[in-house]
Structure formats: C-alpha cells, structure tokens
Design brief:
- By secondary structure, this protein is α/β, with parallel strands linked by helices.
- Helices cover 45% and strands 15% of the residues.
- It contains 11 helices and 12 strands.
- Strands 1, 2, 3, 9, 10, 11 and 12 form a 7-stranded parallel β-sheet that branches. Strands 4-5-8 form a 3-stranded parallel β-sheet, with no helix packed on it.
Length: 355
C-alpha cells in the first residue's frame, strides 16, 4: 500500500552532538552542554540529537538516555533524542523501558533515533556481531512497535524470545515517538523512505547529499507504505549535519576551527588508529573538506551564504549544525551559537519564506 503526500520544504534547525572528552572533568563537560541546550531551548531549535559511542574520546556520554533525561529537566520546548540508540547493544526489555521513561520525562519530546552500529571495534567489546546486527535490529523494531501499542511483549525470533510479558509503561507520544535513522549509505535510502523515517546524513558533499535525498523523495512519493514504521509522521525531516563555526572574521573563524578540527579528528579516529585501521583518512584534510562545503566556517555573512548554498544544492528541509566539537571552549561555542541565532538563522528563514 502507498500513501500520497508531499514532503514539506519548511526549514527547521536542530543540533547534533557527540559530547567529546575535552580534558575537563566530566561534570563540567555535562554542565556546559546543558547550558548550551538551555540556550537552544530559548532560541527556536527543533531538536537535539546525541550520538552513541563507546570506549572513545569521541563520547563521554555512552548512555544517551542518562544525559537526555537530565536535558529533559533543563529544557521545555526542545525535542531530544539519540541519533542513534544502537539496538543490538541493548537488552530489549531494558531499552524499551528507557525509551518510555524518556518520552514521559520529557512530556513527549523524544525523537527516537535507532540504528545497529557501524564500528566493529565498539561492537566487538559488546559481543555484537555486525554481520547479524541487521537481523537483531529488525527483531527489536518489531518487538518495540508492537509493545508500544499493545503493552505486551510477545516475540519468537532468531535472536530474541519473549512470551506474555506485560509492560507497565507506555510512551507519552502515540502510537510511539517519531523515528529517526541516520545514514550515509545510499543503499539504506529506499528502506528509510518506504517507512518514512526522519533522517540525517553527514560527511558527504552537497552533490552526494542531493543524490541521497533525491532518491529518498522518489521512493517516498512512489512507494511509501501506509503501515510503515514511521507512518504516523506526516512528512519526514531530511537533515544535513555539518561542523559549523562562526567568529568575527573569516580568518579568525578558519584558524580557530582548523585547530579544533585536529582534536575532533583525533577523537573520531582514535579507535580505528588504535587498532591499526586507516578508515577515516579522507576526513583528515580540513582544507579539502571546507572547500567542498563539508565544513562551514567564517564570519556570519560567509556562513549564512554557505548554509543557504547547502540548503539549495541538497534539497534538505532540516539543517543540523554541530556547534561543540574538538577542543572549542564553552565560550567559543556559545559565541558561535549566538552569532548563528542572531545573524544567520533569521535570514535563512526569511529567504525560505519569501520563495
């Protein structure tokens, strides 16, 4: 079955984050992030998306649910969600309850990002075989969506078996929170589009992102299933994640961002390098990535023009900057956000409204 609808071109803004280690005590790192989210909550951002990673300086928040529960108490309007929960890494019953708790603690502001994991090093430490992780992911999605709506867990599968388990908590949002799936792999696009998942992509240049979302729109318009996993969401968000940094001048922004990027690359490459794997070499070159629009830095006017170009060239309806990355200080992060909110967002929204 298919469902006729039109994807919205209404532009909205989110935030993506890893919560990296920056040599500060973890308590300070978390408090600085919570203050950042309080500001985002007041400033019109739609949602905050937090990655899940383990045993790496890329993330000192390997339990997204714990941090998001704290964020729910410090914000009022901002939606919150993992991007993504790594389903095969969890006991399904435990994760089901954590999802329901988060949705209720946030008064229905949970954006539920789900995935299976892509790092073999992290997966190995959890005893997860990525070769069968897609099977595990699909079984958990079937269990969760049925449990959210029936209040019972009944499942007989290859990897999980449960019988007549009553679930004493349900999501705040009905039938369940909006689903998100982050992917840079164009082979997953037809499946995402058929189910109408909200999604974000990162690291590809604008041309690559356009190909990704052109295919999504084609499949979504022609093949979207009326009973797909995310069919309760009328029009999905097609998002673009970009490292972004703003300072008073292009020269200052570029110098400070390039220094911070070295730290960020060390953090994301840490596990690969530790295990003698060169998987991320193409992401090492800041200059090349900036020239291709994969990193956006500059004075407010420069950033505004480059973000607008990204929107125009990719066809996204959701722009999701990374403000806190590498070893940018909390002061640098908050100043960058203030410039984005005051001098970039309003003009981008105005341009979109007048077209």
């Amino acid at each position: 079955m298919t469902q006729a609808a039109t994807l919205t071109d209404t532009l909205e803004f989110g935030l993506f984050d890893w919560i990296e280690w920056d040599k500060s005590p973890a308590s300070e790192i978390f408090e600085n992030r919570l203050r950042m989210l309080e500001y985002a909550d007041r400033s019109g951002f739609y949602s905050y998306h937090l990655a899940e990673h383990h045993i790496t300086p890329l993330s000192v928040s390997p339990s997204p649910a714990v941090f998001l529960a704290a964020a729910a108490q410090r914000t009022t309007n901002l939606r919150l969600g993992p991007l993504v929960f790594l389903l095969p890494f969890y006991n399904p019953i435990r994760l089901y309850h954590e999802i329901c708790m988060l949705d209720n603690l946030s008064d229905g502001r949970l954006d539920l990002g789900v995935g299976r994991g892509v790092s073999p090093v992290e997966a190995a430490e959890f005893g997860v075989d990525l070769g069968i992780s897609w099977e595990m992911f699909n079984e958990q999605m079937e269990m969760f969506t049925r449990g959210f709506t029936t209040g019972m867990l009944n499942h007989q599968g290859k990897h999980y078996n449960y019988e007549d388990i009553k679930l004493w908590i349900a999501p705040h949002q009905k039938p369940y929170p909006p689903l998100w799936y982050a992917s840079n792999n164009i082979e997953t696009v037809p499946w995402m589009a058929q189910h109408g998942f909200n999604t974000c992509t990162v690291f590809a240049d604008n041309a690559g992102v356009k190909a990704h979302y052109d295919l999504y729109k084609q499949v979504w318009n022609a093949e979207r299933m009326a009973d797909g996993l995310n069919s309760h969401v009328a029009a999905p968000k097609l998002g673009l994640v970009r490292h972004l940094y703003i300072a008073d001048t292009d020269e200052q922004a570029r110098a400070e961002a390039k220094a911070a990027y070295r730290t960020w690359f060390h953090n994301i490459d840490y596990l690969w390098a530790k295990n003698g794997l060169d998987r991320l070499g193409a992401m090492r070159d800041f200059d090349s990535l900036e020239a291709r629009g994969v990193i956006i830095v500059g004075a407010p006017e420069t950033v505004r023009e480059r973000v607008q170009r990204a929107i125009d060239e990719t066809g996204i309806n959701y722009f999701c900057p990374i403000f806190a990355w590498g070893d940018l200080t909390p002061e640098q992060v908050m100043r960058c956000m203030g410039l984005f909110v005051g001098e970039v967002m309003p003009q981008l929204l105005h341009t979109q409204e007048t077209r």
